[in-house]
Write a structure and sequence with these properties.
354 residues, mainly beta, 4-stranded antiparallel beta sheet, 2 helices
Length: 354
């Protein structure tokens, strides 16, 4: 099953042999900012952005046949944004299950930059105030493409569930090794090309960050200012940018090879569209030393597609991504050739295998 979070609801596709077909829809005409499955329980989650009614969180325990609304997480009374205004939840970016030894732990990344945590399977959430109160937040967390910072990346170490690394856009990368009691910035080697000092300690913009399942000490990051990789658990980062693999939002990594990753490039922050109007997917198999652009089956010369940070996923040798122009492309050969399995869709915010 594929879960597609779109501007007009949650759309699911299912596989029948080599073909994929429309299966169902939920939350018709309501933007779904993110949808995913919890591999521990099989529960499906959907983060909704109602606009007038604000963000809403839903969970399904029967494969999407029915959905239950969960109480929307709330910032505690007295919490304020960096501009002094009361902090209220304005967007839900990302949901990540805790470790296998934490069957009831669920993390939720939100705007304006808060990380929420549940210890009862998602029935209730509380703000991780130790991160919210990090001294860098007041002056170094800010909005980029949106008005406020967003917690859009959450990495839980499969070897140690108390070890969590998160990405704030814009703010940077932060790590806890003690279950959230303390947090340290992990931005050495990153570049903030929009800042007076590009090597600033904070104020970086990780669009999306993910760890290698084969070696969790290897992390990959599609940043606003390039592609970066860490081989020492985010203690330091190396710039891997090699155009067209430079600007973009989404990144996927191989589950068995920590040297292999994929990105969907765009021009830059000003022109958020396919490079030269030619859609491609870039793959590296040598840890980012070189990148190969694959275009077979993707539109060339007339593509205005952009792929958002959570709209690329991988399962086995199959990759899939969705775009802002409502296309869904799938590859069964590790990204070397592609076919469109859906078009004329609403703008796509997230794509996840379930």
């Amino acid at each position: 099953m594929l879960l597609l979070g779109t501007r007009k609801g949650l759309i699911t596709y299912e596989r029948n042999g080599s073909d994929w077909h429309f299966a169902s829809e939920a939350f018709r005409a309501i933007p779904v900012s993110y949808a995913a499955a919890d591999p521990r329980s099989g529960a499906l989650w959907a983060c909704l952005d109602h606009g007038h009614w604000g963000p809403k969180l839903h969970r399904s325990r029967d494969g999407g046949k029915t959905w239950d609304e969960i109480a929307t997480p709330k910032y505690p009374e007295g919490a304020t944004r960096s501009d002094g205004q009361p902090a209220t939840l304005s967007y839900m970016w990302y949901l990540m299950p805790g470790g296998s030894d934490q069957p009831e732990r669920v993390y939720l990344g939100t705007e304006p930059g808060g990380l929420f945590q549940s210890d009862d399977g998602g029935d209730s959430f509380h703000l991780v105030e130790t991160l919210w109160n990090h001294p860098s937040r007041q002056n170094w967390w800010f909005g980029g493409g949106r008005d406020h910072p967003g917690c859009c990346s959450i990495v839980v170490d499969p070897r140690d569930s108390r070890h969590v690394i998160i990405g704030i856009s814009v703010g940077g990368v932060f790590e806890t090794c003690d279950g959230g009691e303390t947090w340290e910035g992990r931005n050495q080697g990153l570049k903030a090309c929009y800042m007076p000092d590009p090597m600033t300690e904070y104020g970086h913009d990780p669009h999306f960050m993910i760890a290698s399942p084969a070696n969790p000490d290897v992390l990959w990051q599609q940043n606003h200012c390039g592609l970066f990789r860490s081989t020492d658990g985010a203690q330091s980062w190396q710039d891997l940018s090699a155009p067209p693999a430079y600007f973009g939002f989404a990144i996927a990594v191989d589950d068995k090879d920590s040297e292999t990753a994929w990105v969907v490039p765009a021009i830059d922050a000003e022109y958020r569209m396919a490079v030269d109007r030619s859609l491609c997917v870039c793959r590296t198999e040598d840890g980012g030393k070189t990148w190969t652009a694959f275009r077979n089956g993707l539109p060339q010369d007339t593509a205005y597609d952009l792929t958002f940070r959570h709209a690329l996923d991988k399962q086995g040798d199959t990759l899939v991504f969705g775009t802002t122009t409502g296309n869904v492309y799938l590859s069964d050969d590790r990204g070397e050739s592609w076919r469109c399995i859906a078009n004329n869709m609403p703008p796509i915010y997230s794509v996840r295998f379930a």
